[in-house]
């Protein structure tokens, strides 16, 4: 009774925080939160839990309840799980959606949850094959956003891998440590009975599906796909001590998938405009000694050409001096032509001279 009074007293505060979290978010984020709340209300009906959650025995033929692979993620049966789901989706709307866009975030939501439904069902089918326990097929109900929560931790690791969250005496905990750390704690809570067995299974499935999608298949605006960064390898999820053997296993599996055609061969691209000075890139199939020999020949040819270009002005100056010291030949100037007598102008000087002669 006191709990209900405390909840009712703090309800305005919860409403204020909820409105602040979902404020300025897209319609898709609000839609997911509303559907999660509605599904929580339906979880009090036992038939609705079976109809909306993934039951491994009903997902496979002949029942083939394929719609449950799209509805199980909205169903939660505990209020604290509903709160975690809403906070997770709200943070995605604040952090991931501005970077990816609303469509890409919804596509990531659908791919991760559908992959979690399939992988988790196959896991329980494998356990049934090992134990012949039918309760694993028909008594297990997979529901909730635990797999999508794992996908969000992987996306945050990709976006901000080196952000320090907590400093402990054993070392720093960054975003790259969150996925496996949360899965490890969920496994401990399942061992002590605080969580259902489906939560660790869904969380690990979400890590695998989200990493595969972000690593190899996510399409970017520049036309590329995936993220082949060295700090986003599968071994980077593990501690530094375990990374070498994990890298050997993961690279072997990837090479096998490439050989059978399930995956494409990784093509690394390097932007030479941002390369540090002195970087030497060796192409496949070229001997490093051969490339060094060609580089020396090219440098020699370049130096010879530069020396020739520098010698040309000196030769031009020498040629000018040689021409200045040569014998010069004087060219006589042409006499000034006398003005022509025009028949239209009277010859005044001639007449005056003749007149003076006659008078004398």
UniProtKB/TrEMBL annotation:
Pfam families: DUF1751 (PF08551). The chain crosses the membrane at residues 21-45, 65-93, 105-126, 138-156, 177-195, 201-218. One of its GO terms (biological process) is retrograde vesicle-mediated transport, Golgi to endoplasmic reticulum. The keyword Nuclease does not apply. InterPro entries: Rhomboid-like_sf (IPR035952), TMEM115/Pdh1/Rbl19 (IPR013861). Keywords: Membrane, Transmembrane, Transmembrane helix. GO terms for cellular component: Golgi apparatus; membrane. It is found in: Membrane. It is a multi-pass membrane protein. PANTHER family: PLACENTAL PROTEIN 6, TRANSMEMBRANE PROTEIN 115. This is Transmembrane protein 115. It comes from Aphidius gifuensis. The lineage of its organism: Eukaryota, Metazoa, Ecdysozoa, Arthropoda, Hexapoda.
């Amino acid at each position: 009774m006191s709990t209900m009074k405390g909840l009712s007293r703090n309800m305005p505060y919860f409403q204020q925080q909820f409105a602040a979290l979902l404020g300025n978010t897209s319609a898709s984020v609000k839609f997911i939160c509303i559907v999660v709340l509605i599904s929580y209300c339906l979880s009090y009906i036992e038939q609705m839990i079976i109809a909306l959650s993934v039951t491994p025995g009903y997902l496979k033929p002949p029942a083939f309840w394929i719609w449950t692979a799209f509805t199980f993620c909205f169903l939660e049966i505990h209020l604290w799980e509903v709160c975690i789901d809403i906070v997770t989706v709200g943070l995605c709307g604040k952090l991931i959606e501005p970077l990816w866009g609303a469509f890409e975030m919804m596509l990531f939501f659908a791919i991760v949850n559908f992959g979690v439904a399939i992988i988790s069902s196959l896991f329980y089918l494998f356990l049934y094959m090992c134990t012949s326990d039918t309760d694993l097929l028909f008594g297990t109900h997979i529901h909730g956003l635990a797999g999508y929560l794992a996908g969000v931790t992987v996306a945050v690791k990709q976006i901000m891998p080196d952000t320090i969250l907590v400093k402990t005496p054993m070392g720093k905990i960054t975003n790259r440590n969150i996925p496996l750390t949360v899965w490890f704690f969920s496994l401990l809570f399942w061992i002590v009975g605080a969580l259902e067995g489906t939560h660790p299974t869904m969380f690990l499935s979400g890590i695998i599906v989200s990493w595969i999608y972000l690593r190899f298949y996510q399409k970017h605006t520049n036309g590329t796909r995936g993220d082949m960064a060295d700090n986003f390898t599968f071994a980077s999820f593990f501690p530094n001590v375990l990374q070498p053997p994990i890298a050997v296993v993961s690279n072997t599996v990837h090479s096998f998938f490439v050989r059978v055609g399930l995956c494409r061969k990784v093509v690394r691209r390097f932007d030479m405009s941002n390369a540090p000075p002195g970087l030497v890139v060796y192409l496949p199939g070229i001997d490093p000694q051969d490339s060094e020999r060609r580089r020396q020949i090219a440098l020699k040819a370049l130096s010879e050409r530069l020396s020739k270009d520098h010698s040309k002005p000196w030769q031009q100056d020498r040629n000018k001096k040689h021409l200045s010291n040569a014998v010069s030949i004087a060219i006589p100037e042409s006499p000034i032509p006398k003005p022509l007598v025009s028949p239209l102008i009277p010859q005044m000087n001639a007449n005056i001279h003749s007149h003076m002669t006659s008078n004398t």
